[in-house]
Amino acid sequence: MDSTDHDASTAVLSVTGIGKTYAEPVLSDIALTLRAGEVLALTGENGAGKSTLSKIIGGLVMPTAGAMRLAGVPYAPASRTDAEALGVRMVMQELNLLPTLSIAENLFLNRLPKRGGVPLGWIDRRRLRDDARGAMAQVGLEAIDPDTLVGELGMGHQQMVEIARNLIGDCRVLILDEPTAMLTAREVDLLFEQIDRLKARGVALVYISHRLEELARVAERVAVLRDGKLVHVDVMMNLTSDQIVTLMVGRELGERIDLGERRIGAPLLKVDGLGRAGVVRDVSFDVRAGELFGISGLIGAGRTELMRLIYGADAKERGTVSLAAAPGAPPAPVRIASPADAVQHGIALITEDRKGEGLLLPQPVAANISLGNISGVARHGIVDARRENALANRQIDTLRIRTSGPAQPVGELSGGNQQKVVIGRWLARDCKVLLFDEPTRGIDVGAKFDIYGLMGALAREGRALVVVSSDLRELMLICDRIGVMSAGRMTGIFERDAWSQDALLAAAFAGYRSRDALLAAHSAPAVGEPS
């Protein structure tokens, strides 16, 4: 037990000697307490054990060793439902929502109000909508119709619906796992306001995040995990961000990153006049061999949509994508009508939604890595397990993927290691153009630097890399040029020696200013007409 804790019997929740072993230990002898009305920040590198510990508390995973107590009473939930019935709720990165049901139905799925209180009667739709509006107002979603299908919402709004669902009813302990990863700044502020209300009600919160500035803003104490062990617990104000990072990774990280000496050559990828239905508007740029080309912009600017058009995941309405057939050759237009066409031409997309679109979570690491290179591991149309495992082991070693081996289900890996598996798949195929969409979202500091180093190695091999990121500092750290998207257009391309944070931000707003001015001009009365 850490020295800052009171006696465990007075705590809302206490865990003692908690351990978990799969093929190898992932948690060892964890002892922590949660107090009423406080936020405990839980941080550490990907693979440190944060999610496993949270899932044990939330009833999703059974511990191998140790015990827990809730309000002084033994606590051993057999399922998430058991934990929720006792007031222990968890908002996970993998949202627990049904996209084909409405917001209201998702919020009250297990307690739909019935007319006249008859258990098997018709659903009281009016009461359901009223109850949903009250729950949605708590997280700032009062402007959205509760009958809207969840599948029609953006990821940020879906996250807020998931948070609202977990706040309904008696909530004694709330675990938030990377809750702001997909939220806008306004939504983050609303979340923090809700956290303050929960603290005032005496709810104990566990807040998992790699965004250290958020931890300082929201938490009273911080617990740091490293390699499945609890290495430090302290009052938040006693630690600086640099000290927390050092505790997380076991070493100090410098302010700069050396991506090695690279020779930037002729353009490998050229995009000319690409557009689709207003979300991407006549975008043109090129990316050279050995170059890291960043794409910045506000949420909704069209960055992900642009990547999907290049990759053939969405159909373009205009424009061309061109590729160089050989080093130094001028790019020539290619037909990309599907992701299969893109892969055939040597273009890979590392998607923003690695769990939903990039991985087969129940399948082994080996199967996920070989997925992009079946012809290389198959004999006579049948996958050769020996070849598949050999390929997986090469990528595990090259990318330093923390796993018990090729047979481990990829869903058991941390977010950072899952991301490495996705990258490893495309490295095995030797794609010459790699599109990275938010490659470090939800990944800790140490794993980010591993990804940066990997990007540098890929660029040194002469590949062209396009990196979409919401973190402007990240792009300024690693990129050679940065293109800025605004309202579907690319409003500027900046060289490393010519950019500034102010100039990049101004370009991010430029498209919206010109669009608003155009709308105002169209709506203004003509000369001579009454105003």
Automatic annotation (TrEMBL):
Output the Gene3D superfamilies linked to this UniProt entry.
P-loop containing nucleotide triphosphate hydrolases
Q: Does the keyword Iron-sulfur apply?
A: no
Q: Keywords, A to Z?
A: ATP-binding, Cell inner membrane, Cell membrane, Membrane, Nucleotide-binding, Repeat, Sugar transport, Translocase, Transport
Q: How does it sit in the membrane?
A: Peripheral membrane protein
Domain ABC transporter, residue spans: 10-252, 254-512
CDD domains in the record, alphabetically?
Answer: ABC_Carb_Monos_I, ABC_Carb_Monos_II
Q: Where in the cell is it found?
A: Cell membrane
Q: Which GO terms describe its cellular component?
A: plasma membrane
The primary location reported for this protein is membrane
Molecular function (Gene Ontology), one example: ATP hydrolysis activity
Q: What is this protein called?
A: Galactose/methyl galactoside import ATP-binding protein MglA
Native organism:
Paraburkholderia humisilvae
User: What gene does this protein come from?
Assistant: mglA_2
